[in-house]
Write a structure and sequence with these properties.
This protein is α+β, with helices and mostly antiparallel strands and about 120 residues long. The protein has 2 domains: about 40 residues, no CATH class; about 70 residues, no CATH class. It contains 3 helices and 3 strands. Strands 1-2-3 form a 3-stranded antiparallel sheet, covered by helices on one side. The N and C termini lie far apart (about 90 Å).
Length: about 120
């Protein structure tokens, strides 16, 4: 028959260890610079993802916004070789004009560019 002998150990205080660990982690977080402070998490994810490589930008309206002709000129400036504008229209959304310009790329995909226009 096997007998187990109890070895006396110092008592383990769980709450003291938790408090000590929490304080150590908080001190480390306060001292070490976070990588997210330089670049936001969205920009970090978008930079590494192919999906966002050629996404159109949404321009913020300044003063009175831009006209449809200014929006199409902006898109023409960004066009790649073989790309062409297939439609341009203005819609009113939320009390503001939104210019929508659709581009057919050389690989036969349609990209939609949106620009804020003037307020209504």
């Amino acid at each position: 028959m096997t007998r187990f002998v109890a070895i006396s150990q110092r008592p383990y205080h769980t709450w003291r260890m938790r408090i000590a660990l929490t304080l150590v982690l908080l001190a480390a977080a306060a001292v070490l610079p976070s990588p997210a402070s330089a670049v936001g998490p969205d920009e970090t994810l978008k930079a590494g993802d192919v999906q966002y490589a050629g996404q159109p930008l949404m321009l913020i309206a300044q003063n009175n916004g831009m006209s449809l002709s200014q929006a199409t000129s902006e898109v023409r400036r960004r066009l790649g070789p073989g790309d062409r504008i297939i439609s341009a229209e203005t819609r009113v959304q939320g009390g503001r004009e939104v210019h929508i310009v659709k581009v057919l790329t050389k690989d036969q995909k349609v990209k939609t560019h949106r620009f804020n226009g003037r307020r209504r």
